[in-house]
Amino acid sequence: MARCMYCCHCGKCGPSSAGGGALNPPGWCIFCRHQNDSHSETCELCGKPLPKPAGIARPAQD
Question: CA nearest 24: which of 52, 48, 43?
Fold first, then answer.
């Protein structure tokens, strides 16, 4: 399955995607499909940044 790389936590690429409709859990890496701690900012396996939960903005980069 191709990954869209735009994570709005829709659940299409998450662990419950076979059932459909469930949101991705906090800490789910869309790149390597690894479940991290819910408060992690980067993935333990691949090191890529994890998406923030809806409503939480990332700090501005200067």
Answer: 52
pLDDT in tens, 23-53: 888 888 988 989 999 889 999 999 999 887 7
Instruction: Mark residue 9 as left, alpha or beta (left: phi above 0; alpha: psi -120 to 50; beta: remaining).
Output: left
| pLDDT tens per residue across span 2-28 | 567 677 777 788 877 665 567 888 888
List the alpha helices (DSSP H) in the chain. none
From the list 48, 26, 20, 60, the residue with the least C-alpha distance to 9 is 26
3-class DSSP assignment, residue 42 = strand
Intra-chain end-to-end CA distance of the chain, in Å: 36
What DSSP string describes 10-23? -STTSTTTTT-SPP
